[in-house]
């Protein structure tokens, strides 16, 4: 039997870390399959990345990685050409013979079968957080996916319900594939107190690991820390993540708010840090805080699950759908309720790591990762068998 040739069209970089990690984790999931299942697949990845980065990140999991200048040669132009020269045979426009490309946004004439990915419909629910140009871009891309994709993969049941409501004509082609955050066993070897010292943090701190985008709602956390300060509880919340380059005003607003409330020492902004450092700080923290107003399927929540860390979560439906263990919910934007949860956690929890809990979480994570890879392949096989 011929191998199924799957091509992952990867997002890469820190402009959208969630999307970048999504593709890395999917490649890991496929690679984690038992040998007899993995050998039935030929996995290629095309990625635009700095020299050597694509190969370093995806090389251990893919059979072939096409990076840098090969991006367009590998994939980007073939779908356009197919629409222009429909009389040409597929082999000429799909020389690497991809059976399935994901995620893609191409036309019906693409010389390969492709699937689209829609993480969420945030722009419809929170349009005030987007420009007209951004909204138009989303509408055009998602409409094309709904119209032409062989399958439309959604990251949550909530997003699938939205998709089926917004694009009823494509409802039968939707599929839910929730993702898993794999934790490399090597990441559990370092002493996380070294990362704590590296970033000048005290022994006791909470962690917020979200990009500095409006919908991540750091302002609620700042208000909660201010409320606790008034009560005499001087807790620390470290914040990691990159700045939204399209709208730096939100990051500036965060800084101004922290300064005006006199919380500079209580809310250190660490910025974008290496993934390994982020994991160490998460391991060391008392708990993770995820205040986001909207998510497709939260990577932060999955990271906390994979490390068996307690997490204080906004009550957004997808967070509830993710249902991580040791989760405590507060109404979105309610800094008073968040402050109450933080105060209880501050008095109850101890700094990590907890090796026994991490070991149990790793076992469960490995099983969930295999299930994730199988779910993806079941979707691919179902599409190819039509």
Distance between the termini: 18 Å
**Proportion of residues in β-strands:** 5-15%
Choose one word for the global shape. globular
- Overall mean pLDDT: 90
Number of helices: 17
N to C succession of SSEs: EHHEHEHHHEEHHEHEHEHEHEHEHEHEHH
Q: Write out the strand line-up for the largest beta sheet, numbering strands in chain order.
A: 3-2-1-4-5-6-7
| Beta-strand segment tally | 13
The assigned structural class equals alpha/beta
Helix content: 40-55%
Rg, rounded, reads 22 Å
Q: What does the main sheet amount to? A: 7 strands, parallel
Low-confidence stretches: none
Structure description:
- Helix 1 crosses helix 17 (355-384), helix 10 packs across helix 13 (275-284) and helix 11 (218-231) packs across helix 16 (335-348).
- It is built from 17 helices and 13 strands.
- Strand 11 (288-290), helix 14 (299-307) and strand 12 (311-314) form a beta-alpha-beta unit.
- The longest helix is centred in the C-terminal third of the chain and has 30 residues, at 355-384.
- Helix content is 46%, strand content 15%.
- With 386 residues, it is α/β, with parallel strands linked by helices.
- The chain has a seven-stranded parallel β-sheet with strand order 3-2-1-4-5-6-7, sandwiched between helices. It has a three-stranded parallel β-sheet with strand order 8-9-10, sandwiched between helices.
- The chain is globular and about 70 Å long.
- The chain has helices spanning 17-31, 35-38, 53-58, 70-76, 78-84, 90-93, 122-125, 132-148, 157-166, 192-198, 218-231, 249-260, 275-284, 299-307, 317-322, 335-348, 355-384, and strands at residues 4-10, 41-47, 64-67, 100-102, 113-118, 151-154, 174-176, 206-209, 237-240, 269-271, 288-290, 311-314, 327-330.
């Amino acid at each position: 039997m011929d191998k199924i040739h799957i091509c992952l069209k990867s997002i890469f970089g820190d402009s959208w870390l969630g999307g970048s990690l999504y593709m890395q984790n999917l490649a890991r999931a496929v690679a984690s399959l038992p040998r007899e299942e993995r050998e039935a697949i030929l996995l290629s990845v095309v990625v635009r990345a700095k020299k050597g980065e694509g190969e370093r990140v995806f090389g251990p999991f893919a059979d072939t990685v096409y990076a840098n200048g090969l991006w367009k040669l590998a994939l980007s132009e073939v779908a356009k050409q197919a629409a222009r020269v429909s009389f040409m045979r597929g082999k000429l426009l799909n020389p690497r013979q991809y059976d399935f490309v994901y995620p893609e946004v191409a036309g019906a004439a693409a010389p390969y079968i492709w699937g689209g990915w829609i993480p969420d419909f945030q722009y419809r629910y929170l349009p005030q957080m987007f420009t007209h140009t951004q909204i138009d871009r989303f509408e055009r891309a998602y409409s094309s996916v709904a119209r032409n994709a062989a399958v439309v993969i959604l990251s949550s049941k909530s997003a699938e319900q939205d998709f089926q409501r917004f694009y009823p004509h494509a409802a039968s082609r939707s599929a839910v594939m929730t993702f898993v955050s794999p934790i490399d066993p090597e990441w559990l070897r370092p002493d996380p107190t070294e990362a704590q010292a590296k970033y000048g943090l005290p022994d006791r701190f909470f962690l917020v690991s979200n990009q500095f985008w409006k919908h991540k709602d750091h302002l609620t956390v700042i208000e909660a820390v201010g409320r606790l300060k008034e009560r005499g509880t001087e807790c620390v919340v470290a914040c990691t993540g990159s700045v939204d380059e399209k709208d730096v005003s939100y990051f500036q607003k965060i800084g101004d708010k922290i300064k005006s409330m006199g919380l500079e020492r209580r809310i250190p902004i660490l910025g974008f840090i290496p993934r390994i450092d982020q994991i160490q700080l998460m391991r060391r923290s008392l708990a993770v805080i995820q205040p986001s107003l909207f998510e497709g399927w939260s990577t932060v929540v999955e990271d906390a699950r994979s490390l068996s860390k307690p997490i204080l979560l906004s009550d957004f439906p997808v967070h509830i759908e993710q249902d991580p263990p040791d989760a405590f919910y507060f109404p979105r934007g309610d800094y008073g309720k968040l402050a109450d949860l933080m105060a209880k956690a501050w008095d109850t929890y101890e700094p990590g790591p907890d090796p026994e809990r991490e070991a149990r979480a790793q076992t469960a994570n490995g099983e969930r990762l295999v299930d994730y890879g199988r779910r993806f392949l079941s979707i691919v096989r179902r599409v190819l068998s039509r």
